Amino acid sequence: MGESTKNTGGGLGAGARFFTNTAGFFKRGAAIFVFWAIWEALPQLGIVAPFFLPPFSVVAETIGGMAADGELVNHLAASLKRALTGFAMGMCVSVPLGLLIGWFKPVSKFLDPLLQVFRQTSALALFPVFILFFGIGEVSKIAIIYWGAQWAILLNTTAGVRNVDPLLIKAARSMAASDLTIFRRVVLPASLPYIFTGARLSATTSILVLTAAEMVGAKAGLGFLVFDAQQKFEIPRMYAGIVLMSILGFTANYLILSLEKRWTSWKGDLLPQT
Amino acid sequence: MTDNIETSASVKIRVRGVSKSFSVKSKDGGGKDTFYAVRDVSFDVIEGEFLAIVGPSGCGKSTLLDLLAGLDRASEGEISIDGKAITGPGLDRGLVMQGYALFPWLTVSENIAFGLDIKKTPKKQSADIIKRYIDLVGLSAFADRYPRELSGGMKQRVAIARALAFDPNVLLMDEPFAALDAQTRETLQEELLRIWMETRKTIVFITHGIEEAVFLAQRVAVMTNGPGTIKEVLNIDIPVPRKAGDVKDLPNFGWLTRRIWKSLHNEEDGLSRKGEYDI
Fold first, then answer.
1. CB B105 to CB A189 under 8 A?
2. For burial by CB atoms within 10 Å, which of B34, B40, B61, B243 has the most?
3. H-helix or E-strand spanning residue B96
4. Vertex B17, ends B12 and B23: CA angle to 5°?
5. Among partner residues B101, B117, B146, which is closest to A170 by beta-carbon distance?
6. Nearest to B95 among A168, A174, A181 (CB)
7. Residue B273: is its pLDDT beyond 50?
8. Contact at 8 Å (CB) between A140 and A82?
9. Nearest residue on chain B to A262, judged by CA atoms?
10. Chain A closest CA to B204's CA: distance in Å?
């Protein structure tokens, strides 16, 4: 009896949760749905020329068509390969470098002025330089994405190491922990939330720089798609490319955030409120 | 001069002529002054005793504890434990601080395991030890919780268990209960006395609370500032086990707290006569 009551309760709970989740989804997405509605209405009502801004449904249809004939996968794959390679290189170089700069004061003192100057140099302004050195192919594209993506990771990782609670280091040191142990078991986990923030910012930058990089000398990719469609006055395709890019950015951010929730669950405030 | 003390087997920690000074800019700008956080401090801690060091904030008592923990080096003098000079931190001493300093990404049992890992205790053995110390501080139901899920009092219990788990001979405590509310503090004081009697560790306990010092310790060292030094060491002849409700009514308790208060207060009088606290 008690058992069955509990089961029913659980079933109801799951059902209720489904509804609250669905309701929550619509609530969170409300602004986006309103935006889509306005986008749909403006050209339909003739307020904006449909040639310049096709209704959202037309753009969605175009995306559907591109998905069907394989064009979508083609562009997405090309863009993802570049963005991911650049981003991964940024992570591989900047996380260790950031840890090093944060942990060793002399390294920080030596490198900091140079990094500050580099950081303020626009990645896009450097693109011609990269093309000059690496040619117009894949290498220069990945290199410029890497360059743009690395800063947020580097700066956040450094900040993470510098902001480790000195009391925690004192506690570890009082237990005769070696510098390596302190680094591995205190500094690294304490910096993890900062590294994740850096990664999310960098993922956004990767896609931003990707767009620009693909507008020069590319045969595929979302940036190319936008640029190419605009040149050919295929306006719905152009908007399709723009929408796909924002979806890509949103997805990247979401994926890193889920990973962050899992790995830094001890922080608690990242967990959804129940 | 102190040979007879040195040969005594019951001395656990020996502090002789210890000073900690810093070079600071002098007030008139130009030159450099030497600032003494701790000056010419000498005392012994007897094996298995509970010694409290009481003093006003800024008297250098935390600096002194850092020196005992080996986290800092004395500018002059020497500190030895079991006859060996302290050259750095070691697993023969456990430290408990006011701010708990629990690792927020580790659960209660993982926090307690930290020192055991450094000691390279085998995992199986480690698990037993962790369980024993979680039980000792009464947190059996919270082994897998993260620090953010615990109250201040519970966090400090974890910190105590963490400092005891790797089995140090000496427990160094730096105002461990100062951030807690009065009720929790009283409970933890009694718990600490119980733990001390169960484990027979040598405890050096820093506090600015006179009543806390008298309630807990067998001896109380009175520390005064400007520069920080130990003025006197008093015996607390109240038998253990002690219960807060009983002990605080004893005439001895009142007399001792007043005695220490006066000892500290005289020093503050001295300061005010120099005009530093004139209003």
1. yes
2. B61
3. strand B93-97
4. 125
5. B101
6. A174
7. no
8. no
9. B105
10. 15
Q: Which pLDDT belongs to residue A15?
A: 65
ipTM: 0.88
Asked if the Cβ–Cβ distance from B105 to A190 is below 8 Å, we say yes
pLDDT tens by residue, B39-65: 999 999 999 999 999 998 888 899 999
Asked if the C-beta of A123 comes within 8 angstroms of chain B's C-beta atoms, the answer is no
- Three-state secondary-structure class, residue B277: coil
Residue in chain A lying closest to B66 (CA): A174
Q: Is A70 left (phi over 0), alpha (psi -120 to 50) or beta?
A: left
The per-residue pLDDT for range B153-170, each reduced to its tens digit, is 999 999 999 999 999 999
**What residues in A contact B103, CB-CB < 8 Å?**
168, 171, 185-186, 189
Burial B229-251 (b: 16+ CB within 10 A, else e): bbeeebebebeeebeeeebeeee
Residues of B in contact with A171 (CB under 8 A): 95, 97, 101-103
- Indicate if the alpha-carbon torsion angle A213, A219, A223, A227 is positive or negative: positive
| Contact status, residue A102 vs residue A157, Cβ threshold 8 Å | yes
Q: Which residues contact A138 (CB under 8 A, 6 or more apart)?
A: A82
The verdict on a CB contact (< 8 Å) between A264 and B93 is no
Q: Which amino acid is at A96?
A: P
Minimum CA–CA partner of B168 in chain A: A175
Question: Under an 8 A CB cutoff, do A170 and B118 touch?
Answer: no
DSSP string, B160-208: HHHHHHT--SEEEEESTTTTS-HHHHHHHHHHHHHHHHHH--EEEEEES
A120 strand-pairing partners: none
Instruction: Collect contacts of B235-238 with beta carbons under 8 A, ≥24 apart.
Output: B238/B214
Mutation site for B-interface testing, chosen from A164, A174, A269 by largest number of B Cβ within 10 Å: A174
Helix (H) or strand (E) holding B270: helix B251-273
Tokens of A115: 């990094």
Q: What is the pLDDT of residues A110-141, one digit of tens each?
A: 998 998 888 888 888 889 999 999 988 899 99
In this structure, are residues B265 and B53 in contact, taking their beta carbons and an 8 Å threshold? no
Please state the pTM of the whole predicted model: 0.83
What's the CA gap between A91 and A149, in Å, rounded? 8
Nearest to A83 by CA among A29, A149, A164, A168: A149
Q: Provide, as residue numbers in chain A, all residues whose Cβ is less than 8 Å from the Cβ of B99.
A: 167
Amino acid at A202: S
